[in-house]
Amino acid sequence: MAKHPRLAIVIPTYNRAAIVAENLAAMAGEVRALDVAIYLSDDSPDNATESVARELAQVIPNIHYRRNAPALGHDANLISTLCWADSDYVWLMGDAMRVEPGCLGRILAFLKDQDLLF
Prior knowledge:
Elements: E1 7-13, H1 17-33, E2 37-42, H2 48-56, E3 63-67, H3 74-84, E4 89-92, H4 103-111
């Protein structure tokens, strides 16, 4: 695992533990193989998403989780999650979304010769 991944997927979430678990589990192999970081910022009022993150950490070593207390709200959670990631590139993903198989490899190949500042 690299100290500084080339790509991070950031996911602000609220009360969607089951779908987050399903989608990240489906992406786990590719995320792990390509050393993509996952940042999961949770505004939920319960521990369900935290439990999911702990389970996923067994198969995705580069997953980062935080529980926002008090909750930040949609917009602030989105912005703070974007600012939290420590990688060259950041991909904001909705908590009910997943990356299609093979897509991360194509994205990382594209990013190899890019020098984008945003």
